[in-house]
Amino acid sequence: MNYVIESKKTLERLFNEEVFLRLSKSQREEISARLTKQFPRLFTHFHHIYGWQYDFYYHLQQLFAVIVRGFAERPEHLKAKDKQKAKHPNWYKSNKMLGMAIYVDLFGGDIAGLRARIPYFKRLGVTYLHLMPLFQCPKGENDGGYAVTDYRNVMPRLGTIDDLKGLSKDLNDAGINLVLDFVFNHTSDEHEWAMLAKQGEHEFQQYYYMFDDKAIPNAYETHLREIFPQVRRGNFTFNVDSQKWVWTTFNNFQWDLNYSNPAVFTKIAAEMLFLANIGGDALRLDALAFIWKEMGTDCENLDKAHTLIQAFNACLQIAAPSVVFKSEAIVHPDEVVKYIDRKECQLSYNPLLMALIWNSLATRKTRLITASLQKTNTINDHCSWVNYARCHDDIGWTFDDSVAAELGINGDDHRHFLNQFYTGRFEGSFANGIAFGENPETGDCRVCGSLASLCGLESALATNNQADIESAVSRIVLVHSIILSFGGIPLLYAGDEFALLNDYSYQQNTEQKDDARWVHRIEVSDDVLAGRVSPTQLSVQSKLNHLISLRQTHPILGDANTQVLNAPNQHCFAYLRVSNLGERCLCIVNFSEHTLVLPSAIMRCLESKIALELITSTTYECSKPISLQAYQCLWLKS
Known about the structure:
The chain is α/β, with parallel strands linked by helices. Among the domains are: 186-256, Oligo-1,6-glucosidase, Domain 2 (Oligo-1,6-glucosidase, domain 2); 561-637, Immunoglobulin-like (Sandwich). Helix 4 packs parallel to helix 13 (262-278) and helix 16 runs antiparallel to helix 17. The chain is globular, with a radius of gyration of 25 Å.
């Protein structure tokens, strides 16, 4: 098939659809221009997935109607934003960008309370605010909001959808981009579609993967991994109401959507455009690696998963072109980068950087972070990493075993060490973390804990050892210094700016006690925001504010190329930022608790006789050796 010719002919037919003809003349002209540009790739992707179906054109008509309605219903202030951001398509690469991820109830109580805290975000410098899931979900177990029952209504205790629209408008006026979760791999088993499926409605049973017996599930299961083995074994759940086995990758109450059904794609596209028209500037694609299933594979990162995302991207480019996707692919590093493209996900979490920062803190060595990032850090110039140290989720040790092997490191053994270290089971560990998802057969797990507790502040304060407290603070600042200088969007997790410690109260909560991730999902109270915290925590806040101010002052720390260097000492991590204007900034990090002296050769890349160290405002001669204190980070600008 010649997709260029066929897409053009098909679009000409679709222009006769009533939903299009009802638009005003100016609306038709505007969307026609976008359709002419974007429809060929949408048609191509949609046909690659669903072209074999006899009713392909019917489903294409339905999708076209959803897109046109999404465009028509888009508020005027968001259409103005579409035009504004079209002039600055790489807005997310600016040094002014600073992200924060929050739970609405833990930060503001509800949406109204969060609106009242916008001045705080402004003072901190936040320009990107990710609201953790706030749409309706079941009471009790709901995977922290990731089991959605209604994509178009907010949890009543947080407010209403109109409250969310108001918050979006306020954030827009304050220059803060709103990020929302697009939970599109699964719904709650209490979603309307799932409820109808339970009642035997065949149409809605086709929205999910439902089987009469375990024969087919068992055939799939041979190749699948278990995500939460501590909760239940396998990837399928027997539903008593329907008397069928249902595909549930994550939890029994989260039913995987069946994207081999084009009706599911169209329905979810409508929910996506609703989120865009609320005012979401970026949509985080939750669990995107799992959205396509094929027998005989592990059903992760399959080619058609990418095709689906590219098709969703094309829908957005037509109806809401300023909205971008953020990939949440916490998978092998080689697979992570495959999702990052202007026509797929413009933004992506950087789990490799995150995991290997923690690795280097534990080992005091940087060979693995250096070799790994030299291999896989480069992405499309029109895209951006979202760099983070902690988030709402656990830490998984997502490095490439082949890279580790070249350094003489056994991947499985090393992950075991890291799990032991960060859960306090390794002698000499400074960390207070909790194991999560521990596999009773293999002993494999992930790690939970707040940034401060994992950096040793909790244990240091418990013993009131001043030297240990200072070391913990230095580790915390080291982590932030990398996140803020490495490029991309630096993302803070709410409470980390105050070095909040683990909250163990979840262990007494019936609905949370089996999910250790709640240990770092910490309430940020009025007292905390008012600075009524310990002097140590105030010290962390002050140091972080200084780093943020420096980043937002110096463009070289934003939109610039990042080159990971081979540092002359195994305890040091070094990278060079180079802008299109020729500016250079060398960042050097000492991951050890000892003072290190590096030869002057490391500064040759600055191509200058002197360099200004931005954090301390100290001038360095590039011809002389350079000294780094314990856990120190230098930002050397030529």
